[in-house]
């Protein structure tokens, strides 16, 4: 899927290059926070990952646990070169090393696709990062990605053109009706796309047993837990 994506992605990047040229002024992005930690969710759960959480979200999930991210203007606009050099330095423990060896950089939000991410992902790759994104898919795809985690939300649906590029579909389960809703997206992603069901954190005690039963009956799905919340890392 990655190879397939990369070949399709090169076409998308050509299209986005046009967008990017018209947005040449985009050298800064609103950064709510960035940190080096363990990925707690989905396919890369348990792997070292540098997170960059961008401000701005127009999706409006009622159970959102990062509502402070919604207003991009609340967060400092940081130069992309600074964002990437900070990432490289933190991953390398502030040694003088100028690149990383395939460490994952996860771009999240907020809804990160509200921003054109071509420049950021190119700069991260030049430093040796693998680029991952966590997105609802509700805005136009930009950037060059090694892994796309699509987490569709009922509050603003993914754009149909984004769905085929998902390497991972992660659906947050809030109530019983979400299982049928999850299946509507499982039917639209590529055959190689990994499928995860994740309990909404505040409902976890109620919905996790439902998810376990559902996965036992529908083994194409796997369980994603927010491991970082159990081990108390960001
Ligand atoms: S898409 Fe993410 S950041 Fe935006 S409201 Fe939903 S959970 Fe919160």
Structure description:
The chain has 234 residues and is of the alpha/beta class. The longest helix has 21 residues. It has six helices and nine strands, in the order H-E-E-E-H-E-H-E-E-E-H-E-H-E-H. Helix 5 links the parallel strand 8 and strand 9. Helix 2 runs parallel beside helix 3. 30% of the residues lie in helices and 21% in strands. It has a nine-stranded mixed β-sheet with strand order 3-1-2-4-5-6-7-8-9. Iron/sulfur cluster binds next to loops.
**Rounded Rg:** 17 Å
Named CATH architecture: Alpha-Beta Barrel
Order of helices and strands: HEEEHEHEEEHEHEH
CATH class descriptor name = Alpha Beta
Class by alpha and beta content: alpha/beta
Shape: globular
Unreliable spans are 1-24
Q: Top keywords for this entry?
A:
about 230 residues, alpha/beta, TIM Barrel, 9-stranded mixed β-sheet, 6 helices, 9 strands, about 30% helix, about 20% strand, globular, disordered N terminus, binds iron/sulfur cluster
Q: In a few lines, what is going on in this structure?
A:
This protein is an alpha/beta fold and 234 residues long. It contains six helices and nine strands; from the N terminus they run αβββαβαβββαβαβα.
Describe how the helices and strands are arranged.
Elements: H1 2-22, E1 28-38, E2 48-54, E3 77-79, H2 80-91, E4 104-108, H3 118-126, E5 130-135, E6 147-150, E7 168-173, H4 177-186, E8 194-199, H5 204-217, E9 222-223, H6 227-230
Parallel strand pairs: 2-4, 4-5, 5-6, 6-7, 7-8, 8-9
Antiparallel strand pairs: 1-2, 1-3
Helix pairs in contact: 2-3
The structure holds iron/sulfur cluster (SF4).
């Amino acid at each position: 899927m990655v190879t397939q994506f990369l070949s399709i992605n090169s076409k998308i990047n050509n299209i986005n290059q046009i967008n990017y040229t018209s947005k040449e002024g985009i050298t800064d992005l609103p950064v709510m926070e960035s940190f080096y930690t363990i990925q707690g969710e989905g396919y890369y759960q348990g792997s070292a990952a540098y997170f960059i959480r961008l401000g701005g979200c127009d999706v409006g999930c009622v159970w959102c646990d990062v509502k402070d991210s919604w207003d991009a203007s609340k967060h400092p606009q940081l130069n992309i070169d600074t964002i990437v050099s900070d990432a490289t330095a933190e991953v390398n423990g502030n040694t003088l090393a100028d690149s990383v060896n395939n460490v994952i950089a996860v771009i999240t939000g907020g809804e990160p696709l509200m921003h054109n991410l071509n420049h950021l992902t190119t700069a991260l790759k030049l430093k040796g990062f693998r680029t991952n994104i966590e997105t609802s898919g509700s805005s136009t795809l930009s950037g060059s990605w090694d892994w796309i985690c699509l987490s569709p939300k009922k509050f603003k649906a993914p754009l149909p053109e984004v769905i085929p590029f998902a390497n991972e579909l992660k659906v947050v389960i809030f109530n019983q009706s979400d299982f049928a809703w999850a299946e509507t997206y499982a039917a639209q992603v590529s055959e190689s796309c990994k499928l995860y069901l994740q309990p909404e954190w505040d409902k976890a005690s109620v919905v996790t047993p439902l998810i376990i039963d559902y996965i036992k009956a529908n083994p194409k799905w796997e369980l994603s837990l927010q491991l970082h919340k159990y081990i108390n890392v960001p």
